[in-house]
Amino acid sequence: MSQEPTHPTAQAELNPTQVLVVYCTCPTATAAEQLARSIVEARVAACVSILPGLTSVYRWDGDICTDAECLLMVKTNQSTYPALETLIRAQHPYEVPEILAVPAAAGHHEYLQWVHAQCAPPGIEQ
Predict the structure, then answer these.
(1) Neighbouring C-beta atoms of residue 47, cutoff 10 Å
(2) pLDDT at 84 over 70
(3) pTM for this entry
(4) What ranges do the domains of the chain cover?
(5) CA distance 44 to 53
């Protein structure tokens, strides 16, 4: 009876759903880059990808608005998410910033490990 190949690190040690992709829109590329840099420097995320050129259509104060925005795709984990949300809320220029966290259903094991290694638990420097 053959066994399935296993990764040297047991799968039980790292559940993919512990990694989160957090979406956050910003009004300008400058604001997006400043926020992304603050997030990574604070070690509340491993990586932030900035996607320019979005158009958002939304309702605000009873009006339908259309604005150009940039989207941040923030790769973090569940243990650092609360600190990430606090940082975004403190530094974001919007009154109510978009902060949506989606758990990873699956992912490249080494990448998931890297995300965890780059995210320091709140109050701990690595």
Answers:
(1) 16
(2) yes
(3) 0.85
(4) 15-118
(5) 25
